[in-house]
Write a structure and sequence with these properties.
With 153 residues, the chain is mostly helical. 75% of the residues lie in helices and 0% in strands. It has 6 helices and no strands. Helix 3 packs antiparallel against helix 5. It is elongated.
């Protein structure tokens, strides 16, 4: 579901990088618009990619402690960890993201003239997605769904 939201900023990112390189190389005058768009599209891409990997449960994990637990204990620990991720998403990303959006809605970016609150909108959006995916992951864990790599063992 989130692939287009991650790929679109990546394409914008690549195009802006090329435009910036060409204007710097051929006109000896880097495009400030493309530099700013590059920065913000990278931030959006990173936040959507984070939500995507949390949804797939493919984020980086250190499983050396979890692997030593019995299956029932592992399940409980994974549910607790998902609840902690949901709490982080709600408190920091959603609540904090809406607060920072409100504080920066009067500020405009230097080159693009876009409200900074609109740039920061990706924080609560990705927080909402991470929280939704976290809830779905808890439901899957409660139903007995195992991660792919655990099924392969």
């Amino acid at each position: 579901m989130l692939e287009p939201f991650g790929i679109t900023p990546l394409c914008i990112n690549g195009s802006c990088r090329k435009l910036s390189d060409y204007t710097r190389l051929y006109f000896n005058n880097p495009s400030t618009i493309s530099e700013e768009l590059l920065t913000y599209s990278f931030a959006w891409m990173a936040m959507f990619a984070t939500a995507y990997v949390f949804g797939k449960r493919d984020h980086m994990r250190m499983t050396f402690v979890v692997d030593k637990l019995a299956p029932a204990q592992r399940k409980v620990l994974e549910i607790v960890l998902e609840i902690l991720v949901i709490a982080f998403a709600v408190i920091v990303l959603i609540y904090g993201g809406f607060n920072i959006m409100g504080l920066t809605m009067t500020q405009k970016t230097a080159s693009l003239g876009v409200m900074m609150g609109q740039v920061y909108a990706v924080v609560p959006i990705s927080g909402i997605l991470i929280a939704i995916y976290g809830i779905l992951n808890v439901v899957d864990l409660c139903k007995g769904y195992e991660r792919k790599e655990e099924e392969e063992k």
